[in-house]
């Protein structure tokens, strides 16, 4: 998306942060960071860190699953759309492998939702309003991240899984076109939800719209003019 820099490696796998991820962090924590309250700013900081780690876990789930299914990852990138796992070679053609690699990401968010929810219900946590707020918010955030990533749209995991599934009965071009059109519908839906001033939903709508418009246009071009 923009300039990026490496922040470290996990088991030898490079992890990069794109500058657009900084914008995402600002949007996430703006209300907390501008509250003027030390407590609220501290909550905002922990939420931003927790959400960033949740995205990293999501992408690591893709990477580990891909590695064990014969598609080694090359690096992970945290960016304005959350994150992406890049592969060192071409994706395996078998639909079940592509579906498994795609869906394990949202599954990791649902696992994190359950863990944060259980943590928030511990008596020692419920007695501390600060910790209870952070763990409760992270539980809810992971639930919605999991659901959002299941939308049938590019570049979301639901879109990639649906493309692989449709590709078993339709041509690759038709499968990509269908998901791209569904993605444009999803973008229009987010515009509808955010039209009353929800900037975050409008940003999501724009990013989904651009990604799926590009997918639709790419699907219409002859195979030798398309690229991944």
Task: Walk me through what this model shows.
With 228 residues, the protein is α+β, with helices and mostly antiparallel strands. β3 (73-79) and β4 form a beta hairpin. The protein has helices at 19-33, 38-68, 95-120, 123-126, 129-149, 157-166, 172-194, 199-220; strands at 4-10, 13-18, 73-79, 82-87. α1 (19-33) packs antiparallel against α2 (38-68), α3 packs antiparallel against α5 (129-149) and α3 packs antiparallel against α6 (157-166). Strands 1-2-3-4 form a 4-stranded mixed sheet. Mean pLDDT is 90; it is low at 222-228. The chain has 2 domains: 1-150, no CATH class; 152-228, no CATH class. It starts with a strand and ends in an 8-residue tail after the last helix.
Which descriptors would you attach to this protein?
228 residues; 2 domains; four-stranded mixed sheet; 11% strand; globular
Helix-residue proportion: 55-70%
Main sheet? 4 strands, mixed
Distance between the termini: 15 Å
Strand order of the biggest β-sheet: 1-2-3-4
The counted number of beta strands is 4
Number of helices: 8
Low-confidence stretches: 222-228
- What overall form do the CA principal axes indicate? globular
User: Please, what is the average pLDDT?
Assistant: 90
Q: Tell me the series of helices and strands, N- to C-terminal.
A: EEHHEEHHHHHH
Q: Work out the radius of gyration.
A: 19 Å
Domain count: the total is 2
């Amino acid at each position: 998306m923009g300039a990026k820099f490496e922040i470290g490696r996990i088991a030898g796998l490079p992890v990069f942060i794109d500058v657009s991820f900084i914008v995402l962090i600002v949007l996430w924590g703006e209300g907390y960071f501008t509250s003027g309250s030390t407590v609220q700013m501290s909550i905002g900081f922990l939420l931003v860190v927790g959400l960033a780690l949740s995205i990293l876990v999501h992408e690591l789930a893709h990477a580990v699953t891909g590695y064990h299914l014969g598609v080694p990852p090359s690096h992970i990138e945290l960016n304005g759309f959350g994150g992406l796992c890049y592969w060192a070679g071409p994706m395996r053609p078998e639909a079940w492998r592509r579906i498994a690699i795609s869906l394990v990401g949202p599954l990791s968010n649902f696992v994190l939702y359950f863990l944060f929810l259980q943590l928030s219900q511990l008596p020692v946590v419920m007695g501390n309003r600060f910790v209870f707020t952070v763990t409760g918010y992270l539980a809810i955030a992971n639930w919605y991240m999991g659901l959002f990533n299941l939308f049938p749209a590019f570049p979301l995991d639901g879109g990639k899984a649906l493309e692989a599934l449709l590709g078993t009965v339709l041509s690759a071009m038709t499968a990509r076109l269908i998901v791209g059109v569904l993605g444009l519908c999803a973008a229009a839906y987010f515009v509808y939800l955010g039209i009353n001033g929800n900037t975050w939903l409008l940003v999501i709508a724009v990013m989904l719209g651009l990604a799926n418009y590009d997918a639709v246009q790419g699907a219409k071009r002859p195979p030798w003019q398309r690229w991944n």
